[in-house]
Amino acid sequence: MGNSLACFSEKNQATKIRSKSRSSHNRRLPPPPPPCISRSTSRKSDRIYPNSLRIHEDNCDDYNYIREQARVAAALLVQHHQQNGTITQFERSVSLRDPLASSSRRQKKNFMPRNSSSRARSLSDSLPQHLELLHQGTTVEDLKNKHFVLVHGGGFGAWCWYKTTTLLKESGYQVDAIDLTGSGSHFLDSNNITTLSQYVKPLSDFIENLDDNKKVILVGHDIGGACISYVMELYPSKVSAAIFVAAAMLKNGQNILDMFSVQLGLNNLCQRAQIFRYENGKNHPPTAIDYDKSLLKEVLFNQTPAKDVELATMSMRPVPFGPLTEKLSLSTTNYGSIPRFYVKTQDDFAIPSSLQEVMIDSNQPEQVFQIKGSDHSPFLSKPQALHMILVEIFHIPPKMNLKTI
């Protein structure tokens, strides 16, 4: 009886537990199961492991083993890209990144595949963001030059691009809309602007201050087309492409007034909408051109929503007259070296489609796009269509011999 009770004593029971623990410790544990990589893009399901396979840092053996496997897989993946020429330079931290370092970091970073056999299946899901873009055909050069600079037309300001700016930023592009001198929120009186260089100075200063290895896509509307042409001549190495949206696309030796003279001959409505200002007296040339607010909708915004017409009515300012008379000096080596694209506006009463075709025929761009049902202000009347065209032009490979459509 005493021996039977001794079997259940605390001392003997503890001895048995210790012996059983040592026995199980000596047996080799099976390797942990492979990670389950979620293919979902939503944040709620962005988990590396299901709940039953969660790894905790207090389980040091399992944790260190999988962390080492992740590092090896990352190194193999980087070596694979280098050998195949699909990546040229990247941050050193890519090969050293540890996605299992903490539970908070584990939720933010994708886990690299454990071995080469699973790489082809899960590469696009597991690559870090900049490697994934490279895998999809986007180069580091594309990312660096993914920058649009928007230049408004006469009387407008940076405010007019608010829909385009929003859409481009939501698509991952860097965007800057410029207020030219005396326009938008710029303080100077339009009547005191006498030269094109003075009018374009905010834009030219912006381009000049860009990093030497940075390029932008210039987008010009209306007389903003002449403004971006002026800057293209000055800084050709900093402009990757130029897009003229219902804009003055002039040849060497022409000025904006040449376009206006043709425009007035084609459209009596536009002529009636323009009001010349003579701040220096009637015996001197005009100092600015203003718009009759009662005709704004009919001339510039015939397809634009009423709320945007109201915004424009309150925001538009006179157009300085002096810059309109200055002839452009454009060379083949500078201005001519930059790919140009034209966006036609079909229902435009300010710069009619026929005048746009005259400029296209005399100074042919790489490619021509057309927005159906757009007035002179597609950034307000057809923002989605304009956005799609801008993005499409960004993805056109450089130096392609494209036909006009």
Automatic annotation (TrEMBL):
Domain AB hydrolase-1 positions: 148-386
KW Repeat (keyword) present: no
Family matches, as Pfam families: Abhydrolase_6 (PF12697)
GO BP of this protein: jasmonic acid metabolic process; salicylic acid metabolic process
Listed GO MF terms: methyl indole-3-acetate esterase activity; methyl jasmonate esterase activity; methyl salicylate esterase activity
Keywords of the record: Hydrolase
Region (Disordered): 1-49, 98-123
Compositionally biased region (Basic residues): 17-28
InterPro entries noted in UniProt: AB_hydrolase_1 (IPR000073), AB_hydrolase_fold (IPR029058), MES/HNL (IPR045889)
Keyword Hydrolase appears in the UniProt entry: yes
Name of the featured protein: AB hydrolase-1 domain-containing protein
